[in-house]
Amino acid sequence: MKLEKLGPALRTLRERRLWKQNELARRAGVTRAMVSAYEKGTRLPSLRTLSRLLEALGADLRHLDSALNDDQRDQEPYRGRPST
After folding, report:
1. Domain for residue 82, yes or no?
2. How far, rounded to the nearest angstrom, does the alpha carbon of residue 66 sit from its chain's CA centroid?
3. How many domains does the chain have?
4. Sign of the dihedral through C-alpha 71, 75, 77, 78
5. Which of 22, 70, 71, 73 is 20 to 30 A from 62, alpha carbon to alpha carbon?
6. Distance, CA of 66 to CA of 84 (rounded, Å)
7. Does 45 fall in a domain?
8. How far apart are CA 55 and CA 58, in angstroms?
9. Where are the alpha helices (DSSP H) in 1-84?
10. CATH label of the domain that carries residue 38
């Protein structure tokens, strides 16, 4: 996984739980501003913090990779049904 894709993947996992940034921050022991910065990609969490974020989300690296792939599919333009 590319590091610049970490933020969108974290956001996707958070949004799947229908949590606000405040809720993830509280559960992971970081500030809401830190969660925002991680999701925007302006900061990278340490491995320890990433571990706490994933634990709070009930996720692991496989879930993070899956969220990344879902996020990329959501950003692809809809091309309609193929012609038959």
Report:
1. no
2. 10
3. 1
4. positive
5. 22
6. 31
7. yes
8. 5
9. 6-16, 21-28, 32-40, 47-56, 61-75
10. 1.10.260.40
Instruction: For residue 34, give every residue at least 6 positions away whose Cβ sits within 8 Å of its Cβ, in sequence order, or none.
Output: 25, 43, 45, 49
pLDDT digits (tens, 9 = 90+) for 12-71: 999 999 999 999 999 999 999 999 999 999 999 999 999 999 999 999 888 777 777 765
19 belongs to a structural domain? yes
Asked whether residue 57 is domain-assigned, the answer is yes
What is the reported pTM? 0.76
pLDDT (average), residues 68-75? 58
C-alpha distances in Å from residue 8, one per residue of 12, 77, 80, 83: 6, 17, 25, 33
- Could you list the residue range(s) of the whole structural domain that residue 40 is in? 3-73
